[in-house]
Amino acid sequence: MIRYIPNAKPFRLAAMNCHYIKFPLSYFLDRAEAYGFRCIELFGAMPHFFMDDVDEKLVERVKDECRRRSLEIVSLCPAQGAYPMNIAIDEAQIRKRTVMILKKALRIAGKLGCDTMLVSPGFGYHNQKKEISWSHSRESLKELAKAAEDSGVVIVIEPLTPTTANLVNTSKDAARMITEVGSEYVKSMMDIGVMNYMGETVDDYFRNLGDDLRYIHFTDGPGAHVALGDGTFPMAQYLADIERNGYKGILSFEINDKRYLLNPDEAMEKNIRWLKEHGLSS
Fold first, then answer.
1. What is the CATH number of domain 12-277?
2. Mean pLDDT across the chain, nearest whole number?
3. HEC per residue, the chain
């Protein structure tokens, strides 16, 4: 088995369980340990860790399983997007329910020892003025920021493509939202796929966000997030740009293409081979 062994880089690498969703969570944790990872990002989806199903017993079990494998859960990503969650929609009942679920997720993230939790800024109806749903998103994030502070977890909002969400799509959008929310507990992340889709560069993100850029999804593309080398993105150049900008956070591998569902280890091994080739393991 190819094994990833971290070297002395300013950032850390995290495995994510998206493409292991057809296997038990314990299987993913076993593989993450076997491949040499020490950090994981936990995708909060069924059947592994869906927010509606999470209770104290499950939290303690996952903590224990990670502790036994010397794995640190650095971030929680509650399933959003296609799920019935939206902090920016007109319907107050939906916004209230979404905020309630995300507050629960923030409490859980704190108990898991996470530094960050990903939050989608949501979307508004495409036939209404953007400022209406923008305001809903901003006020929801202000409310969530208080819960984040109580839990000691920083929210990182995720810019998304316009087909997924029509509010925060670029690094400038993220910077504006962070300024308007005005909390040290609301920052931003960068997804390489979204960055590329929107015609932005790594330097754009660091220029517009500076220290407010706290997390990165580092996956190849375009289209679905694929293993390193399975797409056409200039990932080596992106990596060099990230290093040049002095990034010291997490690079997480969010792989969600269905091609890997039957054999998720294939994607992990491709990533590790790529990491070895580019000096990120020894």
1. 3.20.20.150
2. 95
3. CCCCCCCCCCCEEEEECHHHCCCCHHHHHHHHHHCCCCEEEEEECCCCCCHHHCCHHHHHHHHHHHHHCCCEEEEEEECCCCCCCCCCCCCHHHHHHHHHHHHHHHHHHHHHCCCEEEECCCCCCCCCCHHHHHHHHHHHHHHHHHHHHHHCCEEEECCCCCCCCCCCCCHHHHHHHHHHHCCCCEEEEEEHHHHHHCCCCHHHHHHHHHHHEEEEECCECCCCCECCCCCCCCHHHHHHHHHHCCCCCEEEECCCCHHHCCCHHHHHHHHHHHHHHCCCCC
